[in-house]
Specification:
It is a single chain. It is built from 17 helices and 21 strands. It is α/β, with parallel strands linked by helices and 553 residues long. The strands form five sheets. A seven-stranded mixed beta sheet has the order 19-20-17-16-15-18-21. The chain has a six-stranded parallel beta sheet with strand order 2-1-3-4-5-6, sandwiched between helices. The chain has a three-stranded parallel beta sheet with strand order 7-10-11, with helices on both faces. β10 (222-226), α9 and β11 (258-262) form a beta-alpha-beta unit. The longest helix is centred in the C-terminal third of the chain and has 24 residues, at 380-403. Residues 1-15 and 532-553 have low confidence and may be disordered.
């Protein structure tokens, strides 16, 4: 695995801007990590992120091209509207391409693996199509399409190069995705993923840990272990306890403070994993456990090899040793044959499970899956009505569970880009240990970018007290507490919308910043991105040793 640092843009030998790229990612965390590999491959081939070339970024349009010369759409095929969304995006990009000589459009990911040449047939202005099994060919396909003035489509039926061996341009300097396996051996009747990602293939533990150590050495303090079914890790080399061992080992890597994983499968979730979560300090008290349905009859039809009693038993065991754990889930509404009784069973399980949040989906038939061919599809209007009821229940419980967090002191890993309204509300955002999103008020008069004055950098930790539990996040305005509010200011504050309002409690002020290696790494990356390129007339070095101030160690 090669890690690529941000570099400053420079003119090429002809005085022209370098070719730029922009990756748009749709879908799951696996797609996000695949996009990081695509970025790494392109930078290794001489392309630059369009964000690092202001002259190119200034050309950006509402089509989502970013102003780049090469636009890659990394697709997902899980949802029914995936194709509609893709071709809508491609239609907008077609107009941009007509006005931008040399621009190329590439389509990658699960939908590319599924549709192949069909994408070019419907959108002949697409230059490159490649699938989930051959990310490594992207630069070569772009060059082939340019040379031949014709679309280059290349799909492999099985994995040729393990993605984690490819160059990587990580989006974050403080948190990293680390893939431990690709593919899936399950046969869920609603899921197209196994046919697009293939059978599960596990990385060797030593390779995984080497990557964790590498990202830690570069400043990351959080890693998330990725797989379609992470707790089945080890089947490829015959070690049923491999995932537990990997969790413990990752949690002991020097410099790593937070370890997460996603997504496990309830059928393969064992007590030793729960014990490892509870006894390994770096493993965070957060768990994403897909339910899909609360009806045992529907679970059987889905080929989900567990039942609700086992599912709820796992949650009870996790909370028994980690009472503070936040558990999230996935739920499908309207699976073929689902009755009102089945749906009520789902509502009952959700009520008992008390999920911190849930990703809820209306069932959509995916061509090529057994469920798509069933003749007992639930009418669309029934699915939508059930979805509304489930969504209302999930929102209510999430709000209640977030309200229970009020008064807790949490340590937040400050993130970049998590809070869309941070600038307007004088807050910063990040994740607590349980992975809840927390919006944190800055002390009065402290600007978010005043790092010398005490503002935490992305990657730093800040301890605060939760002052309000909102439906989708926590608000920690404890930095502004500890003083009697001015009546006029208090009245004006109450008149604001909930998201803009300060939420003060009666406790003392609390805003404690812990500067971290990850914050240092973020600051170095910012400095490197803003560094001026060396001019062509720079003096020739005589080979004498020099000291680079601020150089990474």
């Amino acid at each position: 695995m090669t890690m690529l640092a941000a570099t400053a843009p420079a003119l090429d030998a002809r005085g022209a801007l370098p070719r730029t790229y922009h990756v748009r990612t749709l879908g799951c965390q696996m797609n996000v990590h695949d996009s990081e590999h695509m970025a790494g491959l392109l930078e290794g081939a001489g392309y630059l992120r369009v964000e690092d070339v202001p002259e190119a970024a200034a050309r950006a349009t509402d089509a989502g091209d970013g102003g780049a010369d090469v636009v890659i759409i990394n697709t997902c095929s899980v949802r029914e509207n995936a194709a509609t969304r893709l071709f809508g995006n491609l239609g907008q990009l077609a107009a941009v391409k007509r006005e931008r000589p040399g621009m190329q459009i590439a389509v990658a990911g699960c939908l590319a693996q599924q549709m192949g040449e069909g994408i070019v047939e419907r959108a002949p202005w697409v230059d490159v199509v490649f699938g989930t099994h051959n990310l490594d060919v992207l630069p070569a396909l772009l060059e082939r399409a340019r040379h031949n003035s014709a679309a280059a489509v290349e799909l492999e039926e099985s994995l040729k190069v393990f993605p984690s061996t490819l160059p990587t341009r990580r989006e974050s300097s403080y948190a990293a995705w680390v893939s431990i396996a690709v593919g899936c051996n399950n046969t869920c009747t609603f899921c197209i993923v196994p046919s697009l990602r293939g059978k599960q293939r596990d990385r060797r533990p030593g390779d995984v840990l080497a990557e964790v150590e590498a990202v830690a050495a570069q400043g990351a303090i959080e890693v998330t272990l990725l797989g379609q079914n992470v707790n089945s890790y080890g089947v490829g080399f015959g070690d049923r306890g491999a995932f537990t061992k990997l969790l413990r080992a990752a949690g002991s890597v020097e410099g790593i403070e937070r370890v997460r994983f996603t997504s496990p499968h309830p059928a393969a979730f064992t007590d030793d994993v729960i014990e490892a979560m509870a006894t390994t300090e770096a493993v965070m008290p957060s768990l994403h456990m897909p339910l899909q349905s609360g009806s045992d009859r529907v679970l059987r039809a889905m080929r989900r090899s567990y039942r609700t009693q086992r599912f709820l038993g796992i949650l009870d065991k996790v909370r028994g040793v980690m009472p503070e754990a936040a558990i999230t889930t996935d739920i499908i509404v309207g699976f073929p044959g689902e009755t009102e009784e089945d749906f009520q069973a789902t509502l009952d399980v959700v009520e008992r499970a008390r999920f911190a949040s849930a990703y809820t989906f209306e069932y959509s038939p995916r061509p090529g899956t057994p469920a798509a061919d069933r003749d007992d599809q639930v009418p669309a209007e029934v699915v939508k009505e059930r979805y509304r009821r489930l969504d209302a229940l999930v929102r209510r419980i999430a709000r209640e569970e977030n309200e229970r967090q009020e008064g807790r002191v949490v340590e937040v890993l400050v993130a970049e880009g998590e809070g869309r309204r941070d600038s307007a509300t004088a807050r910063i955002s990040g994740r607590a240990a349980d992975n809840r999103l927390v919006h944190v008020a800055l002390p009065e008069g402290l600007a978010e970018d005043d790092y010398a004055g005490g503002a935490p950098r992305p990657g730093d930790m800040v301890s605060v007290r939760v002052t309000h539990g909102a439906p989708h996040n926590l608000i920690a305005d404890s930095a502004r507490c500890g003083r009697e509010p001015d009546p006029v200011a208090a009245a004006a504050n109450e008149a604001l919308k909930p998201g803009d309002r300060l939420w003060l409690d009666e406790g003392p002020a609390l805003f404690q910043v812990r500067r971290t290696r990850a914050g240092d790494a973020w600051e170095r990356r910012q400095a490197e991105a803003c560094a001026a390129p060396e001019p062509d007339t720079a003096p020739v070095s005589l080979g004498l040793p020099t000291l680079r101030v601020g150089a990474p160690v």
